[in-house]
C-alpha cells in the first residue's frame, strides 16, 4: 500500500515492504521515561510502556500471519522489557480472535499492519492503536478497521475498542497510517489516522471507552494526492520540531504541484488549536521518517530515508534529494520550524559501506539515545545491501548524534547477520533491516536496537542488540522467532516487518 516514486519494489516482497514503510517509520525517539508515551512528548518520544513497570516495551506486526486457518488475517506481538532485554518469554501475541479484540480474524485483513502507541485513556498504561487496513465491512471491501487495545498491569491483553470508520463504504483502507502525539499541547494524547484520501482524521483528547475522541474529532487536508490504493499519506510521523511543546506532524505523500508527483514530506505544526495545514512547509523527500533532537538544541530534527537511486527519468530529470544507493535527508529543527539541511549516503565521510545501485540506504531508520549523552542517535537500514554474494542480505548502520548533528566522521557501527555475535547468517533476501527500532527495553536509560528481517522467505525474525551504555553491542543479543512467539510460519507472516512508533 505504500509506493515509492519512481522506484518499484520486487513483487515478491510487496506485502512486507508495504507495511514496513507504513508504520516503520514513524519515528521514535526515545529515552525512556516512566511516564507514558505522550506525557513527555516534546523533542524526545519515550518508549512504550504497556504494563506500566517503568521498562520500555516494543510492539510489532505479523500482518501476514495465518490465524485459525485464515491467510494473512494478521497478528501483533508485544515484547515486554526486562533488565535483560526482550525475548519471547514475556510477551503478548494478539489477533482479532483474541478475547476482547474488536472484529474477527478473516483472510487478508492484515491486522497489525499499522500501529501507534500512547496512553489514549490517561490511566498510566500505554495503549496500542492497531489497524487492519484490508478489513471488509459489509459491501465495503478494503474498508479498513481500527482498534485501540488498552494497556494494563498485565500489558496488552486484547481488551480494546473499535474506532469507527468515518467514511464507511469508501474502500479506503481506514487506519492505514497512524501517528500519536499531543498536537494541541493540552497534555492529552491525540491520534492521527489516514486512509487513501488526502483527509487525515485527528482524534483529540484521547480515546474514550466507547471508541470516540475524548474531546473532538477534526480533519486536516494536506496537499497530497488522494485516491487509489497508493494515495493518501504514505506515512505520518509525530515529533516536536519547533520545540513549543506541541507535537508537530510530518505527512509523507505524493505532491500535487508537478506532473511528477514526487514523494514529498510536509511539516504540519501543532498549535493550541491542533495541527495547522495553513502553516505547512514542504521538506526533503523520503518515505520513512524519524523525529528527535540529534544536536541537543531542544528542537526535534527530521530524518527521512530516500532509499531510491538518483537514476534519471526518461526526460532527463533526476529525482530530487536523491543519491546513488540511497540517501538520508536531515532537516534540523528551530524555533521557527524546519531549518538547515544535510544529506548522508554510504559514501559520506566514514559511513560504513559503499554506495551501490539498489542498496536502499535509508530503507528504514529510527532515533534513540544509545549512550545517554542527550543527543539522539540514528540507525539506518540498507535492506537491499548485497553481502558476500548474498543478494539483498541487508545491514544496519548506527550513527551517533552530537552538538554538530549526525556524526559521519567517527564512531559509526555496522551490523549484518555475518557480524560476529549477531544471530544468524547472511542469506539471499533476508533484508536484515526490514524495520529498525531504537528504544530502551532494559530500563537503564540507554536505547537498545531491534532489527526486523525477512528471514526464511518471509517468516521474519526480530533481532535484539543491546546498548552496553556507550555503544550497541552483540553481547547479550538474541533473535525472537515467530514460532517462539506463537505465530504460525505457514504462508508469509512477515514477523517483525513493522515496529509500532
Ligand atoms: Ca514495560
Ligand atoms: Ca492507557
Ligand atoms: Ca511543535
Ligand atoms: Ca535539534
TrEMBL record:
<keyword id="KW-0378">Hydrolase</keyword>
<feature type="signal peptide">
    <location>
        <begin position="1"/>
        <end position="39"/>
    </location>
</feature>
<dbReference type="Pfam" id="PF01839">
    <property type="entry name" value="FG-GAP"/>
</dbReference>
<dbReference type="InterPro" id="IPR013519">
    <property type="entry name" value="Int_alpha_beta-p"/>
</dbReference>
<keyword id="KW-0732">Signal</keyword>
<keyword id="KW-0325">Glycoprotein</keyword>
<dbReference type="Pfam" id="PF13517">
    <property type="entry name" value="FG-GAP_3"/>
</dbReference>
<dbReference type="InterPro" id="IPR006311">
    <property type="entry name" value="TAT_signal"/>
</dbReference>
<keyword id="KW-0677">Repeat</keyword>
<dbReference type="InterPro" id="IPR013517">
    <property type="entry name" value="FG-GAP"/>
</dbReference>
<dbReference type="InterPro" id="IPR028994">
    <property type="entry name" value="Integrin_alpha_N"/>
</dbReference>
<protein>
    <submittedName>
        <fullName>FG-GAP and VCBS repeat-containing protein</fullName>
    </submittedName>
</protein>
Amino acid at each position: 500500500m505504500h509506493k515509492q516514486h519512481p522506484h518499484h519494489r520486487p513483487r515478491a516482497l510487496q506485502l512486507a515492504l508495504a507495511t514496513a514503510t507504513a508504520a516503520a517509520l514513524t519515528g521514535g525517539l526515545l529515552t525512556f521515561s516512566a511516564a507514558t508515551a505522550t506525557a513527555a512528548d516534546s523533542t524526545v518520544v519515550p518508549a512504550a510502556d504497556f504494563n506500566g513497570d517503568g521498562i520500555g516495551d516494543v510492539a510489532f506486526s505479523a500482518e501476514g500471519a495465518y490465524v485459525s486457518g485464515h491467510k494473512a488475517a494478521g497478528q501483533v506481538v508485544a515484547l515486554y522489557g526486562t533488565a535483560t532485554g526482550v525475548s519471547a518469554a514475556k510477551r503478548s501475541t494478539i489477533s482479532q480472535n483474541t478475547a476482547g479484540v474488536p472484529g474477527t480474524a478473516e483472510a487478508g485483513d492484515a491486522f497489525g499492519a499499522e500501529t501507534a502507541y500512547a496512553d489514549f485513556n490517561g490511566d498510566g498504561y500505554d495503549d496500542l492503536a492497531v489497524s487492519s487496513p484490508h478489513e471488509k465491512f459489509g459491501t465495503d471491501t478494503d474498508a479498513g478497521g481500527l482498534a485501540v487495545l488498552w494497556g494494563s498491569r498485565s500489558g496488552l491483553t486484547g481488551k480494546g475498542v473499535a474506532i469507527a470508520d468515518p467514511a464507511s463504504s469508501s474502500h479506503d483502507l481506514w487506519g492505514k497510517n497512524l501517528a500519536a502525539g499531543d498536537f494541541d499541547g493540552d497534555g492529552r494524547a491525540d491520534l492521527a489516522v489516514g486512509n487513501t484520501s488526502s483527509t487525515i482524521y485527528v482524534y483529540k483528547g484521547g480515546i474514550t471507552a466507547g471508541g470516540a475522541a475524548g474531546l473532538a474529532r477534526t480533519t486536516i487536508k494536506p496537499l497530497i494526492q488522494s485516491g487509489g490504493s497508493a494515495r493518501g499519506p504514505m506515512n505520518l510521523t509525530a515529533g516536536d520540531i519547533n520545540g513549543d511543546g506541541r507535537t508537530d506532524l510530518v505527512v509523507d505523500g505524493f505532491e500535487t504541484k508537478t506532473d511528477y508527483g514526487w514523494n514529498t514530506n510536509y511539516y504540519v505544526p501543532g498549535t493550541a488549536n491542533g495541527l495547522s495545514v495553513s502553516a505547512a512547509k514542504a521538506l526533503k523527500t523520503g518515505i520513512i521518517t524519524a523525529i528527535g533532537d540529534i544536536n541537543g538544541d531542544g528542537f526535534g530534527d527530521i530524518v527521512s530515508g530516500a532509499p531510491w537511486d538518483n537514476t534519471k527519468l526518461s526526460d532527463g530529470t533526476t529525482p530530487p534529494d536523491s543519491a546513488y544507493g540511497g540517501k538520508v535527508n536531515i532537516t534540523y529543527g528551530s524555533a521557527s520550524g524546519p531549518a538547515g539541511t544535510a544529506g548522508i549516503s554510504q559514501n559520506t565521510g566514514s559511513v560504513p559501506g559503499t554506495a551501490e545501485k539498489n542498496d536502499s540506504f535509508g530503507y528504514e531508520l529510527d532515533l534513540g539515545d544509545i549512550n545517554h549523552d542527550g543527543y539522539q542517535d540514528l540507525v539506518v537500514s540498507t535492506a537491499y545491501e548485497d553481502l558476500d554474494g548474498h543478494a539483498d542480505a541487508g545491514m544496519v548502520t548506527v550513527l551517533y548524534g552530537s552538538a554538530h548533528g549526525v556524526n559521519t566522521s567517527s564512531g559509526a557501527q555496522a551490523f549484518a547477520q555475518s557480524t560476529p555475535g549477531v544471530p544468524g547468517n547472511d542469506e539471499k533476501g533476508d533484508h536484515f533491516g526490514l524495520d529498525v527500532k531504537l528504544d530502551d527495553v532494559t530500563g537503564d536509560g540507554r536505547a537498545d536496537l531491534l532489527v526486523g528481517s525477512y528471514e526464511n522467505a518471509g517468516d521474519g525474525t526480530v533481532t535484539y542488540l543491546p546498548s552496553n551504555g556507550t555503544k550497541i553491542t552483540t553481547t547479550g543479543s538474541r533473535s525472537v522467532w515467530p514460532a517462539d512467539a506463537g505465530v504460525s510460519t505457514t504462508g508469509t507472516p512477515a514477523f517483525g516487518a513493522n515496529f509500532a512508533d
